[in-house]
Write a structure and sequence with these properties.
Elements: H1 2-13, H2 23-32, H3 37-44, H4 48-55, H5 62-78, H6 90-97, H7 99-103, E1 114-122, E2 129-134, E3 137-138, H8 184-189, H9 193-209, H10 214-223, H11 225-236, E4 265-266, E5 271-273, E6 282-289, H12 292-295, E7 301-302, E8 307-310, E9 318-325, E10 348-351, H13 352-361, E11 373-383, H14 388-403, H15 407-422, H16 436-459, E12 463-468, E13 472-476, E14 492-500
Parallel strand pairs: 4-10
Antiparallel strand pairs: 1-2, 2-3, 5-12, 6-13, 6-14, 7-11, 8-11, 9-10, 9-11, 12-13
Helix pairs in contact: 3-4, 9-10, 9-14, 10-15, 11-15, 13-16, 14-15
Length: 522
C-alpha cells in the first residue's frame, strides 16, 4: 500500500502546471495594481529582471510558477481587464524613433509620451499630487512644482511666472509633440547619484563586515560582483523607456558548437603589429586605453528577440549579427584590418559594431575600402542608450574611487562591468541574463573603439606600431597632442617606452581570442 502512496505522491507532483495569462496581460495587471517589478520580485524570491523576462514571454516553472499564477489570479480579481483604446502600440514608435538617438545622443528623451491624468497621482519625484504622466510615471512637468525643489512653498497652478520661473505654457497644458521642449522632470531620472551611492554603500558595508581588512573585503566584493551588477542594472532601469528581454530565443549561430567550443560569431579582435617601420631607430610608446569594456556599454543593442532577414540593406534602427563578405583591405602596412586577423576567406558572421565600422570606413569621409556585402541578418529594434544609465553609474563610481585613491572600490567596479559582459552568454554564473548577442556586440564595440583610436593616431601623423585586444596601442610620435593622459575613460595611460628599428618582429600569428577580460585596464 505504501508503494501506491508513493506513486500517488509522484503523480501529484507531475500534475498540470498552473495556467498563466499572456505576457502583456501579466504586465498590465502589475501596472494596474501600481506594483513595481522589484515588489513582485521580493514577494516571489526572484530578481526584478526575472519578472521582466516573464512579462516578455518567458514562463516560470514548478513552485515559482504556481506562486506567480496565484498572484496574477488575485490581481485579475481586483482589476478586471477592460479595453484601453487610448493606448497606442508604443514599442513600434520607440524602435522607429530611436534612429535620431543613434545620430544624436541628446535626442533620446524627446520622444517620451506625456499624458494628462483624470485624477492626480503621487509624483514619483516628490510625492505631491501630479496631473501628468511621463513615460508611464506620474510626475510634475516643471521641477519647481516638486516639493523638494521649492524652499518657501509651491505656487498655485494658475500663478503668473516670476523672474525666477521660466516662461512658457502652464504645467496643465501638454505641448504639441513637435514643439514640446525636453521635459525637465525627465532629467531627474537621469541623475546617477542613487546608483553610484549604492556602490559606495555596498563597499562600506563590506569593509565594516570584515573589520577594515582590505584583502578580505575585496575578495568578498569580487565574489558578489555579478549579482551586484544585476542589482545595479535593475536600479538604473527604473523609469526606463524600454524593457530588457532577458531570455529571448537565440538562433543556432549564437550557440556553442561544442561544449567547450565557440559559436559562429567573429568579434574582430585586433591583433596587429606593423611589419616595417620608417628607417632608423624610434622611440615607441605603449598606451593603455582606460575602461575599454565600460565605454563599450554604449553601443547599439537589440531590444527583443532577433528576427531573420536576407538582403543587402542595413537598417540603422535595428541591431544584431550579420553574415557578410568583408571588403578587401589594402592598408595593412599602416593600419590593422578592421575585421582582425582572419585566416579563412569568404563570408563570416559579424556583430553590429563591426558592420557599422566597415560601412563607416567605406563612406565618403574615409573611403578606405568598399562596402561589405551583406547576405543575411538576425536583428531586432535597437537603441544605443539601453545600458547608458548603468554605464554612467559605474563610470561615476570609478571616477570617485580614482580621485579618492580607493583601490577597493575601483577593483570592485572593474569586476562588475567586466564580469557583467563576460557572463551574459552561456554562463552558470549569471542566470538572470542570457544575451550572447549582447556579449559579442559589447566586445566588438570595444575592439572597434580601439581601431578608431588607431585611425585617429594615423590621421594625426603618428606612426601606429601595434594594436592589440581592447586596450593596447603602440605609437611613434608626440601622442600627447592626440590623446589626453590620465586614468579617466576618455584618457590613456602610458604603459611602457621602448626603442625599435626597422626589423620589428611580427608576433601576431594565431587565432582570435575568446574574450578574456584579464587585459581590461590596469
Amino acid at each position: 500500500m505504501s508503494d501506491f502512496d508513493a506513486i500517488d505522491a509522484l503523480l501529484a507532483d507531475v500534475g498540470p502546471q498552473a495556467e498563466l495569462p499572456p505576457p502583456d496581460v501579466r504586465r498590465e495587471l502589475r501596472e494596474q495594481a501600481r506594483l513595481s517589478k522589484a515588489q513582485v520580485a521580493r514577494a516571489l524570491g526572484v530578481s526584478p529582471s526575472t519578472v521582466g523576462a516573464w512579462e516578455g514571454g518567458r514562463d516560470p516553472s514548478d513552485e515559482i510558477r504556481a506562486k506567480y499564477a496565484y498572484l496574477l489570479d488575485g490581481l485579475a480579481a481586483k482589476f478586471p481587464t477592460e479595453p484601453t483604446p487610448e493606448a497606442p502600440p508604443a514599442e513600434d514608435e520607440d524602435e522607429t524613433g530611436d534612429e535620431s538617438a543613434s545620430e544624436n545622443e541628446a535626442g533620446d528623451d524627446a520622444g517620451d509620451e506625456v499624458e494628462s491624468l483624470v485624477a492626480p497621482e503621487a509624483c514619483v519625484l516628490c510625492g505631491a499630487p501630479a496631473t501628468h504622466r511621463v513615460a508611464g510615471f506620474a510626475q510634475h512637468l516643471d521641477p519647481s512644482d516638486c516639493r523638494p525643489a521649492t524652499a518657501t512653498g509651491t505656487q498655485p497652478a494658475g500663478a503668473q511666472p516670476t523672474q525666477t520661473q521660466p516662461t512658457g505654457p502652464a504645467p496643465e497644458t501638454t505641448p504639441h509633440p513637435a514643439q514640446r521642449p525636453r521635459s525637465p522632470a525627465k532629467r531627474a531620472f537621469q541623475e546617477q547619484s542613487g546608483p553610484a551611492d549604492l556602490i559606495g554603500q555596498t563597499v562600506q558595508a563590506a569593509l565594516a563586515e570584515h573589520q577594515g581588512d582590505v584583502e578580505a573585503t575585496l575578495a568578498a566584493l569580487l565574489k558578489r560582483a555579478i549579482p551586484d551588477a544585476m542589482r545595479l542594472l535593475d536600479e538604473t532601469r527604473k523609469g526606463a523607456r524600454y524593457d530588457i528581454v532577458a531570455h529571448p530565443w537565440i538562433p543556432d549561430i549564437l550557440r556553442k558548437q561544442t561544449s567547450k567550443g565557440a559559436d559562429r560569431i567573429w568579434e574582430a579582435r585586433p591583433k596587429w603589429t606593423r611589419h616595417e617601420l620608417p628607417p632608423g631607430r624610434h622611440e615607441v610608446t605603449a598606451l593603455d586605453i582606460n575602461g575599454a569594456y565600460l565605454s563599450a556599454l554604449k553601443t547599439h543593442l537589440p531590444l527583443g528577440q532577433l528576427e531573420h532577414s536576407a538582403g543587402f540593406a542595413h537598417d540603422r534602427r535595428r541591431a544584431g549579427v550579420h553574415l557578410i563578405t568583408p571588403p578587401a583591405w589594402e592598408h595593412e602596412a599602416v593600419l590593422p584590418n578592421p575585421i582582425g586577423n582572419r585566416d579563412e576567406p569568404g563570408p563570416l558572421w559579424v556583430t553590429e559594431p563591426t558592420l557599422r565600422l566597415l560601412l563607416r570606413l567605406s563612406g565618403p569621409k574615409h573611403a578606405l575600402c568598399e562596402p561589405p556585402e551583406i547576405h543575411e541578418s538576425y536583428t531586432s529594434g535597437a537603441t544605443e542608450n539601453l545600458l547608458e544609465k548603468f554605464r554612467v553609474a559605474l563610470k561615476e563610481a570609478r571616477d570617485t574611487a580614482i580621485a579618492a585613491d580607493d583601490e577597493v572600490t575601483l577593483e570592485y567596479v572593474k569586476a562588475m562591468y567586466s564580469k557583467f559582459v563576460s557572463t551574459m552568454g552561456e554562463s552558470n554564473y549569471n542566470r538572470e541574463l542570457y544575451r550572447p548577442d549582447w556579449m559579442h556586440i559589447i566586445r566588438s564595440q570595444a575592439f572597434s573603439n580601439l581601431w578608431m583610436k588607431a585611425l585617429k593616431a594615423h590621421d594625426e601623423g603618428l606612426t601606429v606600431v601595434r594594436a592589440m585586444g581592447t586596450d593596447e596601442l603602440h605609437v611613434i610620435g608626440d601622442w600627447h597632442r592626440v590623446f589626453p593622459e590620465g586614468r579617466g575613460v576618455t584618457e590613456v595611460k602610458m604603459k611602457d617606452i621602448y626603442t625599435a628599428g626597422a626589423d620589428v618582429v611580427d608576433d601576431t600569428e594565431g587565432t582570435e581570442g575568446t574574450g578574456d577580460m584579464s587585459g581590461e585596464e590596469e
